[in-house]
Amino acid sequence: MIERLMTPSTTPDIRDSDDPLAPYRERFDLPEGVIYLDGNSLGPLPRGVSDRVAATVADQWGTSLIRGWNDHAWMDLPTTVGDKIARLIGAPAGSVVAGDSTSINVFKALSAALRLRPGRTTILSDTGNFPTDLYVAQELAALLGSGYQLETVTPDAVESRIDADVAVVMLTEVDYRTGRRHDMKALTRAAHAAGALIIWDLAHSAGAFPVHLQDCGADFAVGCGYKYLNGGPGALAFLFVAPEHQAHLRPAIAGWMGHDAPFAFDPDYRPAPDIRRMQVGTPPILAMAALDAALDVFADVDMEAVRRKSVALCNLFIDEVERRCPQLELVTPREADRRGSQVSFRTPEGYAMMQALIAHGVIGDFRAPDIMRFGFTPLYLRYHDVIAAAEMLERVVNERLWDQEQFRHRRKVT
User: Fold this and answer.
1) Is 123 helix (H, G, I), strand (E, B) or coil?
2) Is-catalytic flag, 201?
3) Which residues, 6+ apart, have CB-to-CB distance to 9 below 8 Å?
4) Which of 24, 220, 226, 366 is catalytic?
5) Across all residues in the chain, what is the average pLDDT?
6) Which residues pair with residue 200 across a beta bridge?
7) Which end of the chain has fewer CB atoms within 10 angstroms, the N or the C?
8) What is the per-residue pLDDT across 226-238, written as a single tens digit (0 to 9) for each?
């Protein structure tokens, strides 16, 4: 156990006193003495989630037993939760379903999209995409055979590469390492101009800043519930399908919950006429209840205000770190409209530095081979937290607090 060399600063900052989002911090159960800059990897616990899960266990499952599916509307939770997420990503009601993992939802969306573009065989992505999306696409292409392939190009080359052979463009809006943000509207327009469909991974977007799927004309989107949506470790993911596609999809994974009448027990698959056809198995109610309660944090949140504060927090951190630690290389775009809600710095000793920083009360994370990653969640982060984090990073770097064997030992999760 490392004895912290500094208590995170509690000095008031005038920006905090004028912050319209300051009251939202009270909606989270945050541990004392920690500055949490890793909500882009795992969101903290919102107040109310523990009680909701406990009540679901004791008062619903424990009392109602099987009757809970009807008495507590468990069966409707995938679309009820989906509609809460839809509001945050600029999607209409009835276009989002919660369930499964991001990887499974990528498979469902990609396989369905490919069926809508017969004769085209290329899945186009970029070299900065999250590996799980690429793995799913690689193995789906191998499974399908018949010339299907995944092609990756640099992020800047995506638009110029889209041609008549591309069936689906599959991109993560915000690069998980660098925080670089794609232009959703421009790339969606380019894909459609070439006759292709597009899938957006919103893992580092949903809940972090306003997303405008419908306005941009997106076809499909996926995302996870455990980052900015704060649904808990391994929380359920979500899947968006534009309304105009829903009645035409044939999901490659067809399960009874996607059937038009699950309790008719029809031996022949007849998909539900709407987003419900993208469901597969029985929804995990305890996990669904946790995510449902976590999303209540956003019920009255102005996402434009969230974005304004996100930009200000990130700008402040960049300025403070570059002034204090000029040896660190900024890899996140400086221009606010080209980044998400994270800031990343590159350094050869990034892993050890991050471990030392965590040991001294500032939690970020590391992404191989050499990137220290810091997420900024405006609902609970304060401006003086940002300054205190930069101060601690300065000590870790310039006093070589990281230069200990215990900080070089690679753990399973980085």
Assistant:
1) strand
2) yes
3) 384, 387, 388, 391
4) 226
5) 95
6) 171, 221
7) N
8) 999 999 999 999 9
